[in-house]
Amino acid sequence: MAGGRGSRGERRGWTVKLMIVIVQNKDAGHLLDALLARGLRATKLASTGGFLREGNTTLMIGVEDERVGDVLAIVRRTCRARDQLVTPLAPLSGAAETYVPYPVEVQVGGATVFVLSVERFEKV
Ligand code: 2BA
Fold it and tell me: Is the CB of 112 under 6 A from ligand 1?
């Protein structure tokens, strides 16, 4: 994001957004490369999906409002959906003894994206 030190969330008529983008680890490198090549900034966090309990990657990307579309286009280009077989965990109570684990196929990705309005942005 171009905004320097002391930037406010709203300045010169544009607003700042924080994009939280959850992707598969396999796609994270390409996504980061593409973002940096377009002059965008990102912070990469190691995260774990609540359903699969497997590692995934969360990127925090601060951008001017008008660049949200650019980021989404890059995410669409670099992240793809994959089918994955999972065996649901046995229930903790109830019918646990009679539980037969059947693998089910789920489609993971391309990406889960949240776009948040930023009230204030500062670099100190
Ligand atoms: P996980 O929670 O590990 O979910 C992996 C995939 O499992 C999901 O892919 C979805 O296809 C399936 N899944 C998740 N919960 C399910 C359920 N209750 N029943 C059946 N299938 C289920 P995606 O939707 O592409 O999500 C990929 C990852 O993005 C998630 O990993 C999670 O880390 C994150 N995510 C997705 N939606 C989210 C949300 N509303 N809030 C926060 N994180 C989210």
Answer: yes
